[in-house]
């Protein structure tokens, strides 16, 4: 028993002398972050669009996108200059190969590329004026594109001119509401247009719900009408049959009463009660049946 206790105490003492060093987050985080950054950099470079120098391509915007991706991947200027050739195609690729000897670095490359492929002021102005908000396009997308085009035409364009071009391309359903609020800055224009856009979306939702209820209402109405008609018809039929029974069961006079010319012989002839009652009449003069004393054939003989 003593040996067991002593052994247990020795083992407990040994374990208490062991120090456990916790894992340091600072040692793992940089590695994990670097791996994540490398993955993002590869994806960004892979998805970067190429530039061919076509009329529909925007050289300034393309260069801005390229510069942003290269900076995010931590490329140095010398490496940017080497890497950019992989993203040139068609006319732009031919241009670079022909002028590579006179373009030694990245900075000069950007300047010369813009000179070669930047559209004229007339083309920029035409593109800006023709930019209209699409029917299914939100205000924010339209606003950002239009502001960019305005800056391309004139980097120092005044707020009133920017608002003028923004208004010209806005959806017709939004124009009147935005003008009524009289925005004085492009940002105020965006806020007012987005507010009205939200209101219209809400109203369209209400309109759709009301239309759905309107289309469903006649169906319920038809069922209700049928139920009402089912209830009404027996009442009308019973009333008519009651009237006919009441008319047919009305007692006839025992004596022939003088009638007006409007009395119809058709009614007397077709009335079965009249026929049955006329044959059952008894004459008090001759005591015969089928007539009364006033018209008794034996009256002269009596």
Structure notes:
The protein has 302 residues and is mostly helical. Among the domains are: 45-118; 122-200, Non-ribosomal Peptide Synthetase Peptidyl Carrier Protein, Chain A (Orthogonal Bundle), CATH 1.10.1200.30. Helix content is 68%, strand content 0%. The N and C termini lie far apart (159 Å).
Hey, roughly how much beta strand do the residues contain? Answer: under 5%
CATH homolog superfamily of the domain at 122-200: Retrovirus capsid C-terminal domain
Here the CATH topology of the domain at 122-200 equals Non-ribosomal Peptide Synthetase Peptidyl Carrier Protein, Chain A
Number of helices: 13
Global structural class: mainly alpha
Order of helices and strands: HHHHHHHHHHHHH
The tally of beta strands, per DSSP, is 0
| Largest sheet features | none
Per CATH, the class of the domain at 122-200 reads Mainly Alpha
Uncertain residue ranges: 228-270, 272-278
Question: Could you say which overall geometry the principal axes of the C-alpha atoms support?
Answer: elongated
In helices, the fraction of residues equals 55-70%
Gap from first CA to last CA: 159 Å
Average residue-wise pLDDT: 76
CATH A-level architecture of the domain at 122-200: Orthogonal Bundle
Radius of gyration: 52 Å
Any key phrases for this structure?
single chain; 68% helix; mainly alpha; 302 residues; Non-ribosomal Peptide Synthetase Peptidyl Carrier Protein, Chain A; 13 helices
């Amino acid at each position: 028993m003593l040996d067991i206790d002593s052994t247990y105490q020795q083992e407990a003492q040994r374990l208490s002398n062991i120090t456990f060093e916790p894992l340091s987050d600072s040692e793992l985080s940089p590695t994990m972050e670097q791996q994540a950054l490398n993955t993002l950099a590869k994806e960004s470079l892979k998805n970067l669009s190429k530039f061919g120098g076509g009329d529909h391509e925007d050289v300034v915007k393309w260069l801005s996108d390229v510069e942003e991706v290269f900076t995010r991947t931590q490329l140095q200027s010398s490496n940017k200059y080497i890497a950019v050739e992989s993203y040139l195609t068609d006319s732009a690729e031919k241009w670079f190969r022909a002028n590579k000897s006179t373009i030694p670095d990245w900075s000069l490359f950007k300047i010369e590329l813009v000179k070669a492929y930047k559209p004229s002021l007339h083309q920029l102005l035409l593109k800006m004026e023709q930019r209209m908000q699409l029917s299914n396009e939100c205000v924010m997308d339209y606003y950002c594109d239009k502001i960019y085009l305005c800056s391309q035409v004139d980097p120092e364009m005044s707020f009133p001119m920017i608002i003028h071009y923004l208004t010209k391309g806005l959806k017709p359903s939004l124009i009147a509401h935005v003008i009524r609020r009289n925005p004085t800055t492009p940002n105020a224009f965006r806020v007012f247009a987005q507010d009205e856009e939200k209101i219209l979306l809400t109203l369209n939702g209400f309109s759709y719900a009301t239309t759905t209820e309107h289309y469903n209402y006649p169906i319920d109405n038809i069922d209700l009408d049928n139920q009402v008609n089912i209830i009404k018809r027996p009442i009308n039929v019973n009333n008519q049959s009651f009237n006919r029974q009441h008319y047919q069961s009305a007692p006839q006079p025992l004596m022939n009463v003088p009638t007006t010319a409007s009395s119809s012989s058709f009614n007397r002839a077709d009335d079965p009660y009249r026929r049955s009652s006329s044959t059952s009449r008894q004459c008090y003069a001759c005591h015969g049946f089928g007539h009364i004393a006033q018209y008794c054939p034996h009256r002269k003989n009596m």
